[in-house]
Amino acid sequence: MLDAAGRLCDLVNCYEWTSFDFGPTLLSWLEPHAPEVFAALRRADVASHARTGHGNAWASAFGHPILPLSTPRDVRTQVRWGRRDFEHRFGRAPEGMWLPEMAVDRMALTTLAESGITLVLLTPHQAARIRPLGAGDAAWTAVTPESLDVGRLYRCVLPRGRFVDVLFRHEELSQGVAFGELLGDGVELAKRLGSALADDGRIVAIAVDGETYGHHHRFGEMALAAALRVLRTDPEIELVGPAAFRDAHPPTHEVEIVEGTSWSCPHGVERWRADCGCRVGGAAGWSQAWRAPLRQAIDWLRDETAILYETRADEVLHDPWGARDRYVECVLDPGRTAGFLAAEASARLSPAATVQARRALELARHALLMQTSCGWFFDDLAGLEPVQVMRYAARTIELAEALGRRLEDGFADRLAPARSNVNGESGADLYRRAARGRAATPARVAASGALLTVLGQPPRVPGYELAFSAGPAGGELEAEVRVTELATGALSAVRVVAVRAADGTPSCEVGDSRFTLASLFGVQREHLVEAVAREGAGVARASRHAALARLRTILEPLLAADTPLPLELAMLLGYEAAEEIAAGVAATPPALAELQSRAASLRARGVVFPARWLARRLAQALEERIVGLPEGAHEALGLLDLAEAAAVVLDLGRAQVRALAWWREAPPAVRAALPVTRLCERLRIAPEGPGAATR
User: Rounded to whole angstroms, how far apart are CA atoms 566 and 609?
Assistant: First the structure.
């Protein structure tokens, strides 16, 4: 939160005050790559549970499929995996589940109820009719999006005494947030929300994509934070999730939903299987006729692999479909696989039977993943999302072939009628080029490791272990590579011959196939670029050191005489000085005053510092001092002075957040110390200014 002067005055964890869901795929990435964000999500759920008795986090169907287009058995697994992933991440059972694209039918709701999940969010056009709970058929009343009272919960009554309670979003406000101007002013948003609460005992729900806040609408998350701060200080309003609202105001009416509907397609769920007219953008004249062949091909492959899975898994597992439901434990923690197989096996498994069981389970997993809804949502077959769906299908086909069934021709034939709008490429050709052609075959895995080896890099391939029978010699490598696929335990032996050409370019031959750097997997290319950058920077640094050392006796008198510097020399000297400054900042203790004086002097002479490089290192050093407050306040101020002397602009965002978080927890006497107050001023944080909130 910023005050009128643009100073940071408050921090709001929006998730602590709003219901939210994150897909399992995103959470699995956030936990290792953005642990602070993941921890903030968990804290928000714990805090909301402490405040209202119910956590704000909701579960999500595991692979984000359109549930009404899935088989009942697949819906069950998607829901059970989603529930278990949620328990693994948040340490409690979920009460609500976000239906992908709000796509709903009674089968999906029944499956949720059977899994102990009793809350969903829908949009008003998905309600067909309502009646008081327990009333007869004559009490049914048809509703429209305009006539439905969205200020209450409704109960969808299901077979065998089960139910799921439904909260319908406020359509006008949700559309205004997602596509209108309501995120332009957080205070005004709060007023609009408050005015929608006409009477006591009512709820107003906005349901939008999470990326609305900050991605679709820049600074939208700040507007939301401002609105939440206003609302939570209003004594007439309580910020609670649907579960807490249900405690106080249980449903009094039953609802019958409109089968096979969603929030992002007015034609039901046709967007995910037909050219219904729904699209994101694209050029005029583009067609989405490709959706039908892609759906038909995926559904056919789904059904064929189900037969194959049941047949081959039944040979080694005592309950194949139950094992698939429970396999999520191994997805969440591969270290559980051996114990899982021992419990699920119909008899003691031989090494070959173990591989068969693991291949069958991975086949079933990828058959779920290939149904991900985004494959059909956007405008062209050649887009990232449809290609990703095809890659899941390619892996499914590869595993099916290893289990004794060839399905690729049938899949490609069904996909062939699909056409890309970009270049007219057929679905079958696109599949062979972008999906099957990029598959992680044993040959490609071994070759990619060999290419890295002759470049002097670790031969790491995510998901695989490689063992070479020999090492490189003279820029060449001829060896047998034992490739172990970690997901299935399958072992392959691949003969590789890798060489470096006279210009240093590597290539690798496996049989009749030739692999180059373009054959590397994405993460390998990223790591190799980083390694090359480090090597190149090291070579450039050494050359710069040597050149400046040779010229020093000439340069120093010229610089002392204030001789103007040509740009090339100013930049060379700037890089040299920036590295010295960075090293000085890392020293214990850092001589910041001396560094500041030197930076100012060099800048006055026309030296040009590498601004982004130096700013990143100074900002990192500043964050480290903020962590050490209050002792780090003096050095933090010195680093700000140094940045100013070097004329580099720091990104203060993380330092501001850390400093304000520290200030909230610090004793008043420590907060009032002069270095701390000066640091707050320099960081442009105003924790006690107008509009600030304390805890």
Answer: 14
Edge-to-edge, what's the strand order for the sheet holding 513-515? 464-468, 476-485, 491-500, 506-510, 513-515
Closest CA to 659 of 693, 635, 633: 633
CA distance 301 to 320: 18
pLDDT on residue 689: 57
Structure tokens at 213: 């806040």
Decide if 81 contacts 62 (C-beta within 8 A): yes
- Quote the tokens at residue 85: 């992933």
Sign of CA dihedral 486, 488, 493, 499: negative
Query: Which two three-digit tokens encode residue 157?
Result: 């009554």
**CA quadruple 209, 210, 213, 215: dihedral, nearest 10:** -80
Burial 385-418 (b: 16+ CB within 10 A, else e): bbbbbbbbbbbbbbbbebbebebbeebbebbebb
The model's pTM: 0.93
Looking at 566-610, list the stretches that DSSP marks H as alpha helix, in order from N- to C-terminal side: 567-586, 592-604
Residues 6+ apart with CB under 8 A from 490: 355, 358, 359, 402, 484
Give CA–CA dist 169/205, Å, rounded. Answer: 5
Whose structure tokens read 């499956």?
111
How many Cβ atoms from other residues are within 10 Å of residue 32's Cβ?
Answer: 8
Provide the edge-to-edge strand list for the sheet that holds 127-132. 119-122, 163-168, 153-157, 253-257, 127-132, 141-142
* Res 200: pLDDT: 81
Burial of 300 (0-12, 13-18, 19+ CB in 10 A): middle
Distance CA 411, CA 427 (A): 10
| Strands lying side by side in the sheet with 97-98 | 20-21, 57-60, 97-98
What is the phi-psi region of residue 364: left when phi exceeds 0, alpha when psi lies from -120 to 50, beta otherwise? alpha
Q: Are residues 325 and 78 in contact, defined by beta-carbon separation less than 8 angstroms?
A: no
CA distance 292 to 538: 54
Report domain extents, the chain: 14-257, 291-438, 442-527, 564-683
What topology does CATH give the domain 14-257?
7-stranded beta/alpha barrel (3.20.110)
- Which parts of the chain sit beneath pLDDT 50? 694-695
How much is the pLDDT for 381? 97
**What's the rounded Cα separation, in Å, for the pair 63 and 78?**
7
Neighbours of 530 (CB within 10 A): 10
